[in-house]
Amino acid sequence: MMRSGGYLRHPAMAALAAVLAVSVTACSPGDSGSPDGEIVVVDALGRTVTLPEVPERIAVAGRGAFMIFDAIYLFPGGGARLVGLEAGRDTSAAFAALVDPDLSAKTIFPRNVGPEEIAASGPDLVILKSYMASDLGAPLEQLGIPVLYLDLETPEQYERDLAVLGTVLGEPERAEEIASFYRDRVARISAATAGLADDRRPEVLVLQYSASEGTTTFKVPPASWLQTTMVTLAGGTPVWADEAFGDGWITVGFEQIAAWNPDQIYLISYAGDSATVAESLQSDPAWQALEAVKSGSIYGWPGDHTSWDQPDSRWILGLTWLFTKLQPDLAAGIDLMDEVEALFTELYRLTPAVVQAEVVPTLFGSLP
């Protein structure tokens, strides 16, 4: 059914192809204009943040906090500097415990923690997602606590924010190593799919599934979000993108889903195994009329301690998995389980044995 669509010429594709050109303004100790030991960076909101030295006590809180502390743990010295973190999900706390042997000595903030509770942990820097600036950042700064904002929402922002973190943590070389891990994999996929004709790009629908008190809800991500970008980069056409604007998930009904009638459907579930959701819809008479269900092309988005669709450190695994589904011929040389091991050994410094014992059993979704 692969109909042609203008979205493939969306500016996001050009931006991703130019991911190597991302520039970061960050001064490390010893740079011209910076006193010895002083840290100067430009954060995601374009603010110049100056610290007298590498912070020894960092706190992470607010919505999306796990995306930040998972990035901090990519740095060998990052975990030791964390004194407090908001781990709202049990799975987030479980992963933090896996990579941080000293987690029990840290303050675990409750969900929606307030500025006074964060201040009580004694941080010399608080790192927040940029959308927490007014709700949490401003009150913290009124208490005299420096705040650094990160986006971590797109591949370009991820590389930029890693460089900022590397400077703040005093590990700029490690930041480049981490960025290269992501950059190389994005470049491999981008090179494989960049020249694909429209009729070789399956039409794709990504849906977040949730169920509460007997009511089932489906939502699509905005056109600017990572989930949409991953579909385009991995060699598909996101059928919802031309109609999805805003800054949050957009609820859609089955009538709209049927009107889109995509070639493939990818289901995201933050509260259970997405593969189980896919299996239940595969047997639903209404859904069986859809082309994707007829061909058995309805999949649960995978993850381990957290879903790989989000702009967390695992997003590169989500992109790679999606590439193997959308363009299996082009991705024939990729072993997804090798990629899983590479991420957790090279980036989180876990041993292969620990990955097999502690990460692999947590995998969910429609994996090979």
Describe the protein's architecture and organization.
The strands form 3 sheets. Strands 9, 10, 11, 12, 13 and 14 form a 6-stranded mixed β-sheet that branches. Mean pLDDT is 90; it is low at 2-33. It is built from 15 helices and 14 strands. The chain folds into 2 domains: 22-189, Rossmann fold (3-Layer(aba) Sandwich); 201-362, Rossmann fold. The protein has 368 residues and is α/β, with parallel strands linked by helices. α13 (315-326) runs antiparallel to α14.
Q: What's the short version?
A:
The protein is of the alpha/beta class. The protein has helices at 11-17, 65-72, 78-81, 90-99, 115-120, 133-142, 155-168, 172-193, 226-233, 254-260, 274-282, 291-294, 315-326, 336-347, 352-359, and strands spanning 26-27, 39-42, 48-51, 58-60, 82-86, 107-109, 125-129, 147-150, 203-212, 215-220, 237-238, 250-252, 264-269, 298-300. The chain has two domains: 22-189, Rossmann fold (3-Layer(aba) Sandwich); 201-362, 3-Layer(aba) Sandwich (Rossmann fold), CATH 3.40.50.1980.
**Average pLDDT value?**
90
CATH-derived architecture of the largest domain: 3-Layer(aba) Sandwich
The first-level CATH class name of the largest domain:
Alpha Beta
Write the CATH fold name of the largest domain.
Rossmann fold
Number of helices: 15
Structural class: alpha/beta
**Whole-number count of domains:** 2
Spans of at least 5 consecutive residues whose pLDDT stays below 50 are 2-33
User: How many β-strand stretches?
Assistant: 14
What's the CATH H-level homologous superfamily of the largest domain? Nitrogenase molybdenum iron protein domain
Spatial separation of the terminal alpha carbons: 25 Å
Order of helices and strands: HEEEEHHEHEHEHEHHEEHEEHEHHEHHH
Strand content: 15-25%
Fraction of helical residues: 25-40%
